[in-house]
Amino acid sequence: MLHIVFLGVLFGQTTGTSVQRPSVPSDLKVVIAAPIYQPDGGVTAETTTIPANAPNVVHIYSRKSVCETAIAGAAEPNDAGFGWRLASQTLSVTDSIVNVSVDWRRVWDRGRKLTNGPSGTVQLKLHPGARIPLDHIPNPAPTDTCRAVGLGLEIRLARTAPTPPVNSALVPLGASAGGASSIDADLWLVQRTPSGAEQAHHQTVRLDKRGGSFTFAPVKVSGDRGEVDVEILGSFERYRAPVGGEFVYLTLQRSITGESMPPGGFRSGTGTMIPLPGPAEVLALEIPGPGGAQGARGGMVGARAGGGGARSRGAGSAASAPPPAVAQGGGMVRRGGAGGDTGGGSAGPAAGGTLSPQALEILKGHAFSLRLKFTPVPGS
Hints:
Oligomer: single chain
Radius of gyration: 20 Å
Largest sheet: 11 strands, mixed
């Protein structure tokens, strides 16, 4: 059964001069991305972050086709058909620049291990929003199940969200902080362009008993009047109800920057308490447009669908699946509330501030949504 939940809260809106970002290095993350480029212009990206305090080795790869992306640590995966080994080390960090050394090598292509594949060693000076392409593997044999043009390798720099205080009014009565065990949160940030094409960026975040945070690299939106960067980031905090069950407090922050914006850009954010969905469910949150184009009631719209959608990470496919579709129509509608099987409470800042007419014109017709799937971690 499909449940649709309207989470009635405005994304609070502020200009950059009234809200200060923490000027500390810890709010910057170097991200390794493997974007899958579709023939219709859509993009799905598998991402992982680089720790700032130690050298790091990862393998970012796909399996039988370029569409089946996954990420492994220093140990080589035994099921790779395409992909790379990447070693990195952060050299220096300021409040707005990260210098990183990257040594990459293509290890697999067309199902074969390479002994002398393309490679490179670079030192990069990264600013927030930077996206540096390193390599691209064309799809050698497009099929109905994998029509992608190819698979890329990129380095990006994104900001993290400082964890805001939880609105105590939304915490279920008698609930205690902390979850029962670790869970994996699969997140898809989906951008729908005015033409109807969708671009999706995927990441998996391991949530410990307290929760965790996530950040997506800025999405560049261009128009006749210029371009802006839209950045979505957020955090999870977990709670257990005294009668059983678990709740997650989800915060979302949006930052819009560009030449037409004031110093520091345009910021907005919201928080909502949601019952933890089951592993077969997908939660979809439509992020309202800054000009009120999305969410007719002015709020963030959530839809939870049972079954279908993304497959479990344990099967090695959640990371490679396209953003799970959420069926529309049918079901029930509920508003507000912090409890119940479909209810969700919301709260967020509602300060003033507006985007420039130029930025609103650039963003016109672009819609963003976040899709979530939670999977228990075996043995945790």
